Amino acid sequence: MLPIPTPSALAAFVGCVAMLSIGLGTASSVTTALAGGCFVGLALALGVTMPIGRRVRRQRLEFAWWLGHGDPAAGGGAVVPGAPFEVRCYIRHRGPMSLLLSKLSPIVPGGATVKEDEPTELVLAARSRTEFSFTLIAPAAGRVVLHGLSVTLRGPLGLFEVPLYFPNPLAIKVLPRAARLRSVARLRSSLGVDRSGRNLLRRRGGGTELHELRELSPGDPFKSIAWKASARAGKLMVREVEQEVQETRVLVLDVSGTMRGGPPGSRKLDFAIEAAAAEARKALDEGDRFGLVTVDGRVLSFVPPRDGATHMIRIYDALLSATEVVDQDLTDVTDDEVIRTVGRYVRNQDGVDFSMRTGTDDRWDVPALLRHVRRSLDGEHASRDIVAGSPTGANMRAFCQARGIPLPYRPAPEGGTKAPGLADALQRASGKKREPASLMVITDFDGAGDIEPLLDSARLAKSRGHAMIFIVPDAQSFAPAPTSTLEADLRVVYQHGESRRLRDARTRLGRMGIPVVSAGERHPGTAHRSKGPPRREVA
């Protein structure tokens, strides 16, 4: 790349122009000669700086970076939103002369930021390996991809500098904040039928902890009669006990475009992911089974209910995959536009130009680009099957997902698909077994239209004995303060629509005894506890 003038070079050039103007205006040969000498000096500095880039490339600077895991000084442990984490780097310099690198800047899209107090200059000694680090902060759960490191190499006198770029993609998983919570160790039996959680099941005549003695009622089994207590009371008494049983909890998460408005970290989807992770961590720590369904017009991922600490990894993977959807029916970009995006990325990142020489970037050598993409995807796999208009489009979208290239998400669900999608997800969560479970649905109902299909699925789930609760993220708690009268008016209009949707959902679901709770940004982990005491069943 051509050298770039520094502010010092620009100031020197302006001074030379001014000196030349003065010399010509005053007919001073000395001043004119000094100005010409300054121009020659700038030209010499430019000429000396130009081959620096080629010389450095011949010396083959080697760059690598990695996440500072396991070191307390590097923020060891899981990377979570809002918590600084360290990325360690090194550059190996094999040349005979020292180099001064400046303006060190990692290329990090997606909202992650580098702390301002990081060093901006680095001296590379001859034939040495120099280590340094960056401290970054991610605003929301998801996958952060560091594409490479951008630096500049200063020339003589610091008048010109040569930009350099070290492409080296590094993917970092940013887990929900629940990943840093301490787990509560529990002794578990190897037999699933013997496993117990912390939810109490009331039984008559068997169990571990006495709940109450009461008078015999019609339908009570005779084996539950407490004969000694009946003799003392002079009437038949029934003993009810409680024992801990393993409960099944399944969460349905709406990840549609209406949940994605706003900057990363302040979206309804970010709140929902944090709430889902907190509920999963709480359920698994208590010895219960937990499942997850993500949906946007159709079921995107389904994690069957299981228990154990390792199951939390599956939950995290499903939650993070909801933040990097690239399917054609869910993104606002066509396969042809994705091909152009990938072509430009490969040209800038990998240094390989697949554009056709027609004077425009609208035409690409698609077969050659596809071969390059497939080679890059070797050893990598998508989190699930990707929906695209063609196999070529599927490969290009998978490449975007692997490299963290964001594709614009569809702002609103297609007409009439949100409610049926939620209904299908609720049926998937209910399962085909008759074993009662606790179901939670997190959705904003925005764009749902007629929710009758969802009500039908809710009735079916209730008939199977499932307990349900709907959590509606409060959009007003996530929206920034309005900065103009127009924004304030639009906020009032949207608030009226949100209140109407919430009121309608509470009315129609409330008739079936299903609570609908509005939750805000400040309480991401308390949604499950809002449903009241643990579920109790009579055997």
- Structure class: alpha+beta
CATH fold assignment of the largest domain: Rossmann fold
Strand and helix order: EHHEEEEEEEEEEHEEHEEHHHHHEHEHE
Count of DSSP strands: 18
Share in helix? 25-40%
What does this structure look like?
This protein has helices at residues 7-26, 29-59, 227-233, 268-285, 311-321, 335-349, 366-377, 391-403, 418-430, 452-463, 485-510; strands at residues 4-5, 62-67, 85-93, 99-107, 113-114, 121-124, 128-137, 142-154, 160-174, 199-204, 209-215, 237-245, 248-254, 289-295, 299-306, 438-442, 467-473, 516-519. The protein is 33% helix and 24% strand. The protein is elongated and about 125 Å long. A six-stranded mixed β-sheet has the order 15-14-13-16-17-18, with helices on both faces. A five-stranded antiparallel β-sheet has the order 1-9-8-4-6. By secondary structure, it is an alpha+beta fold. It folds into five domains: 4-56; 58-179, Immunoglobulins (Immunoglobulin-like); 201-244, no CATH class; 248-325 and 412-531, von Willebrand factor, type A domain (Rossmann fold), CATH 3.40.50; 335-403.
Brief description of this entry?
With 539 residues, the chain is an alpha+beta fold. It is built from 11 helices and 18 strands. The chain folds into 5 domains: 53 residues; 122 residues, Immunoglobulins (Immunoglobulin-like, Sandwich), CATH 2.60.40; 44 residues, no CATH class; 198 residues, von Willebrand factor, type A domain (Rossmann fold); 69 residues.
